[in-house]
Amino acid sequence: MRKGQLHFNYQFDSPSTMEGVSKYINPVTTNLLFKDFSEEAPDESEKIGEIVFDRVFTDHIILDEKYTVFDVFDEDSDFYATYGFKITNGYEYHKSLKNRWKDLGYGETNFIYIYEYWLKPEFRGQKIMLKAILDLIDQFQRGISLFVIMIKPVLESEILRYPEVNYEIEKHPIRKYDEALSEQKLMNHLSEIGFEKIEGFSDLMFLNPSELDFEVYEQFELSKRIEIV
What we know:
Elements: E1 2-12, E2 25-36, E3 46-56, H1 58-63, H2 69-76, H3 78-88, H4 90-93, H5 95-98, E4 111-119, H6 128-140, E5 146-150, H7 179-192, E6 204-207, H8 214-220, E7 225-228
Parallel strand pairs: 4-5
Antiparallel strand pairs: 1-2, 1-7, 2-3, 3-4, 5-6
């Protein structure tokens, strides 16, 4: 059995690379790290997972005379071109989304979009990803009105895309997964910390940080000591 401490490290793009519209959509990577306490363990922490998200500063775009919200979202990606304006102006499209914003006025349209995440198979089942997402919310919620996460099945086969996972196919043979069931399990876990589905956004879940129950932090984040059999 391996005993150790879980901690998180955040990596940001260099400010020198943030030019033009990219300065309004800033990617950040959360590294999930495990420090093994056993005597034979190496001194450095082991990377066991990752979360990638964007900080979207819509209210700053409003002050920039060079760009509009449409310019920034259309240039960045298909996701923002499709959903960005609907999210930031949700009150014009969906009444249910309107209630997820702190206010409807200026400076209340910034959001965070979480779109990539993985965890080594042997560390699953301890809600480590939920701990990491809660830490992310705690660290970055200032000035953010909404957290948005893309729902997708966490399939074992997806881990093969990441060479740093050192996936051993002999120990974890690929099985046929039910994608719908996998997505539902993920949504159930996210619901535990306050995320919810909203009509009109089939692949997304939303969290208003001002509505987050602080008991959730006590339940998931305070204890970061974990044991791996």
